[in-house]
Every structure is written in C-alpha cells, then in structure tokens.
Amino acid sequence: MARRILPGFPLALGITLVYVSIIVVLPLGALVFKAASLGFEDYWRIVSSPRAVASYRVTALSALAATAFNLVFGMALAWVLVRYRFPGRRFIDALVDLPFALPTAVAGIALTTLFAENGWFGSVPAHAGIKVAYTPLGIMVAMAFTSLPFIVRTVQPVLEDLDPALEEAAQTLGGSDRSIFLRVILPLLTPALLAGLSLSFARSLGEFGAIIFIAGNQPMSTEITALLAFIRLEEYDYQAAAAIASVLLITAFLMLAITNILQARALRYMARG
Amino acid sequence: MKIRLDNVVKTFETFRAVRDVSLEIESGELVALLGPSGSGKTTILRMVAGLEYADAGHIYFGTEDATDIPVRDRGVGFVFQHYALFPHMTVTENIAFGMKVSKVRRDKAAIDARVTELLRLVQLDGLGERFPGQISGGQRQRVALARALAVDPKVLLLDEPFGALDANVRRDLRRWLREIHQELGITTLFVTHDQEEALDLADRVVILDKGQIVQQGTPEDVCRNPASAFVMNFLGDTNRFTAAVSGGVARLGNATIPAPGFSDGPVEIFLRPSDLGWNVSGEGIPATVARVIDRPAGRRILAVTASGEAVELDVAPETQVSAQDKGIIIIERARVYAAA
User: Fold this and answer.
1) pLDDT mean for each 10 residues of chain A (273 residues)
2) Which domain holds residue A218?
3) How far are the Cα atoms of A79, A164, B79, B194, B197 from residue B160, in angstroms, in the given order?
4) Does a structural domain hold residue A28?
C-alpha cells in the first residue's frame, strides 16, 4: 500500500467515530431510548393525538412550501451571483449567509415586526385581507428565511464549475435557451439542488427559535411540532416530549435517505464503467 | 457551402484579437487556421460559428450575409477542444441532442437510425449506452464530431480538435478526419497551433500572427515559399543569421548565398537544420560540435560557429561525428529576408 501523507487510518477513524458518537449518536440514542421506554400503545397515543397530528401537518406543509420557495429563489440568487458581475455582488454574496449567523430568535422577532399587520411588509397583504404573522404563512416565512443559504450555497459551486462550452455546444446544435436550461443545465444542477433541498427541508422541520415568535402558537393551527415537544418538556413529561421529537427525527432521517437515493440516481453517469 | 470573411474585426476590451481579416473558403475545402496563441485564430473560428460577434466586417455563408444570424440558426457544427460532451447523457443521447431540440420534428425511429449511422461513421458501434466519463479521450472527440455532424451542418468548425490527446491518438484521428472529410465533402475549418497537424490535414493553410493573415496557400506553398521570417520561423526549426548583402550576394563564413533583388545592406538569413550539411573541409561556416543528439531519422548536431553563434543541423544517421570535432557547416539551401 502506498504511504499516505495524512495521519493513519486507525487514528483518523477513531477520532471521527468518537466525535460522531458524543455529538450525534449519544443524544439521539438517549432520545430514542426515552421514547422506547413508553409502551407501544402509549407511544402511539401520544404521537397520534389530534394536537400532535395538527402540528405535523402545519410543520410539514410549511417546510415544503418554504423549501419550494427557496428552490426557486435560491437557484435564481445563485445564478445571478455566479453569472453576472455587478456592483454590490460581493455584498449580496455575504448577505446570503446572514440567516446562518443571526440568532434565530432575533430573526423571529425582526420578521414578526416586519410582517405584523401594521408592519412594513405585513401591511401590504393586509389590504387584501391576508395575514402573515401569527398564521401558517408566517411560519413559512420564518422557515424560508432560516434555510435560504442551503440552496444557494450548494448550487453556487456547481454552477461556477459548469463548463461554458457545454452551453455553447448546445447552442451550436440549435438548442433554444429553454431547452438548454431544461436539458443541459438543470440535470447537471439536480444533485446539488437535491442536496440543498434536503438540507433546507430538514432545517425547516427542526427550526424553533425563529418560528415561535411569528407563529402565534395556537394549538391545532399554528403550533409546530418542535414547540409541542418543548411544551411537553416544560410539563416535565419527558417521555411524551421524546416521542414527539422522535417523529421529527424519523421524518428528517427518511427524507435525507430518499434524497440520497435520488442523488445517486442523478449522478449515475459519474460511475465508471 | 462557401464561406467568406470580409474585413472582419474583433476587439476584446483593449486587445485587438482580429484585425481586418478577409478570407475565402471554397465549398468542400478543408482549411487550417494556424498560428501561435493570441494570433486570433480561435476568435475567427468562433465568429464564423456565431459564438462571438464581429465588431466590424461581414461573414457570408454562400451569398447570404450570416454576420448577425444567431449561433443556433447558423447551421454550423462545432467541435470543442475539450469535447464539451454533456456528461449526464449517454453517447447516443449526446449525438441525438441536436435532432431532439431541432425545430424540425423528427420521429424517434428516424433519430435512432441517424444515431446508428453516425456511430458507425465514427467507429463507435456498441458504445452508444456509455457515458462520456466511461470512454477514452479519442473516443470522446469522435462522439463530439458525430454530435456536430448529426444536424447536417453546412460548415464544420473544429477548435484545436486534437490538442488534448496524446501523440499517437492524435495522428490516427488526423488521418481519420481526413477520410471523413473526403467521404462527406463538408466545408471544414479547423484551428491549430501545431504546424505538423495543419500541414498533414489541410488542403490549404492560413497562417495568422497578431490577428492578421500573414500567408495562405497549400501546404506546399507555405513550406517551400514562406512569405516572411515569421512564417519561416513558425513552420519549423530554423537557424537565424544576420549578414550584409553586397552586389546581390550575402556572405556567411566563407560561403556565398545569392540574394537577388536585395539592395546592399543588412539581411536576415534563415537556414533549416535539414538545409545544412557537415564536412571536414569546404566552403561554409567553420564550427565546433557541442553535442550530438541521436534521433530515429538521423543525427542532429548542435554546433557553435567561430563567432559564437549556436547552429543546429541534421545529418544522415551514419555520419561519424562527436562533440569537440571541428569542421565546416555546408549550406545547401537558404532563405533571405530583409532585416526586421
């Protein structure tokens, strides 16, 4: 075997495993353990209670809507940042990461103020009778805000590496702008889009700080799953909190698994024959 | 389809890439644009394709002014140096791309038949289901050619088509491209910086320098009668001397070189290594051998003249010569140009 430059395999793997165990597996394991200490019937009763189901619905639907929104606007933003040179480009590029850096509670309070019925943004749709703050729409806004960087930052590098000759080749072959985008650019961006999409969706499912300020938190309508778990925790009902949290965990895990499979399919051309 | 460029100009920022180039390519001709990097050859090719627009001048396809026709309607086949195959499509899908996006509707059977025909033409039968990442560089370039030919282009344009391939594959593909051209008779323009490639492949060679055409003609024309010192230099190894002409002859060492038509004064004399010989005595340039390099076709002597100039000359493989030998460089052929 060729000599390697980096520290040996046993050491590197050891450190990695210890780290993953302590930071990721241990807390999640404790969660599953706690939930498992309920009998199946109790578990099922808690996770299928009408209030819990309503919270899944609003969380999942808002996360889907926020992800769909970010898919379009995140891609547009990445496109503009990569393809065009304009004054302020680097500033906008830096702004994209702001939702990561900003404490989510601060973001939540700011968004609530802006989107309240008498706020700068909220007053416009209010004329048409549409309320944003304290409705599922507000949840969606908060989710979209906190997960925007995922799509931009996954698509951007792939777009930067896209060989301009591919588009030129497609043009010389008579492709219209539309068919070049749909047949050449989009398929090549798909793996990155899927990665960004799954991260964005997973983050939206788990978002807490930004949402609780804008959501209104009415049980059965604007109460998100993470908040319900938190409420159970406040009531010292640790088992119920764990049970509800486990639903989020399983959903996020399934979703990541599905996107991984889709991604592998989209990248099958990379496999060497 | 005949192509005509009429006083074409292209400037990038402040760099004048193409200056007033006029060029005619006859229908069915295979023409090489040859020049060093920065000579504007690729820019000219891209303007013919419509991938760049000329700042001034016109480009005609036949009698039609194609200057402002967008690339997708121009009907050219373009082969890129690094293939530019669509990595997420199989070889078959790559070749079919142009037919699928075309405004002319074709049914699936017609597309399949055409793809099969093209795969046979480029000798890649059986590789249709592979992805570009799964075939070799030479095969990729043939797929790129098939893809360009699939839309029945009026003109075929190739940008350094063999530049990214290794020497053996390059030579094979060159001969093969020549055969394909003979078979299809499509007007073809290709760009290269490799003079051997241009001379090997083209009916006519157009030599460019600093955005201008410095000479064009058959490979024989440009090899036997290089129009300028630049062309002489660019087409192959040369030894350059400066000398003075007096009475229609120039003197190098104790050899005289006829320089008819040159008035008295300084000139540049270019000697190819194969235009020189080595002898122990005679009329020529006295020199000392510094090193001998053996090559399959003969021996190359690196010599230093009495006045300290380095000279390279090719001699027959059986010539007995070694470093430190003293002798005379015999001049068999020389080209004289006015001093720059």
Assistant:
1) 68 89 88 86 90 93 94 94 92 91 90 87 83 87 92 94 93 92 92 91 90 87 90 90 90 88 83 52
2) 50-267
3) 30, 17, 9, 9, 10
4) no
